[in-house]
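Thread: Flap endonuclease 1, structure

OP (GT): Posting the sequence first so everyone is looking at the same thing. Length is 337 residues per the record. Can we get the structure tokens written out before standup tomorrow? I want them in the notebook alongside the other entries.
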Amino acid sequence: MGTDIGLLLSRREIELSSLSSRVVAVDAHNTLYQFLSIIRQRDGTPLMDSGGMVTSHLSGILYRFTNLIEEGIRPVFVFDGTPPDFKSKTLDKRRKVRETAHSRWDEAREKGLEKEAYKYAQASVKLDSYVIESSKTLLSIMGIPVVQAPCEGEAQAAHMVKSGDANYVASQDYDSLLFGAPFVIRNIAITGKRKLPGKDAYVDVKPEVIDLEHSLGQMGITHPQLVDIALCVGTDYNNGLENIGQKRALELVKKHGDIESVLRKLGKEIDDLESIRDFFLNPPVTDDYDIIWQKPDHDRLIDFLCNEHDFSRERVAKAWERIIAVSGSQQKTLDQF
């Protein structure tokens, strides 16, 4: 998902402790997708309660964001709204990929092929209304604010950072940079050891920050030109130009100045070019939101996770203790950050 321009961007590793007291606008759909992809059993089966409802995302929110809250980080989850019309082809393609992957996952499980099953299970992840609404419920119980974007969550999160209401966007994708986010954090929800796809090897994953202005300066381009590069490579709204990778796209845009000149030179076209380009540069966003951290609700947390979704009372109780002790005092809670 998103555009593939990562090799062009400058980044620096950070410690989570350096984000203490910083407001982080979390790309909710991207983060939930990570949890649903990674928090699974060996054969790819997600965590589920006794009623068969998936709970991998709830586990990720509770335990991973308890860790972040302990570091003094103030998360705000930003959820997607209605996608633009020109994203329909991409969404259709993703649906077909998920359906195919789900069939292959079933086949691999029947044959006892755990590695194959896990790979196809990850590719079959879907964010349905249950995942989204149950996530919002848990976030509310934990006192973490939620913002509903009118369209793309990454655009809304970028707007919040540009407006000074947040310090960073947290997302694994690079699209928030195309929407103008000054600072993006990657790997905030998946630090630690991570298995390389298709290999029996693991790498250390650490949080990293991408500074948009610094990256643009390193490349010697403007923000609109970065959008043009992404359009050459391909985005969620258009296919990339054939045989044009990130580095070649950078060369072309720097040489010819803009996407229109590049397309004329190559004799190529991009459907809905003007609309897509303008969407990145002037996305629909809202200022109608409140960012207020509330006091977590212990009784609702136990009822929702333990009674409704079969979470371990002992583990949830430990997470609760860590949340309320976040500021170093039992009298202080999230609403007093």
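GT: Both are above now. Quick notes for whoever picks this up: Residues 327-337 have pLDDT under 50 and may be disordered. The beta strands are 12-13, 23-27, 74-79, 146-148, 168-170, 183-186, 192-195, 202-205, 208-211.
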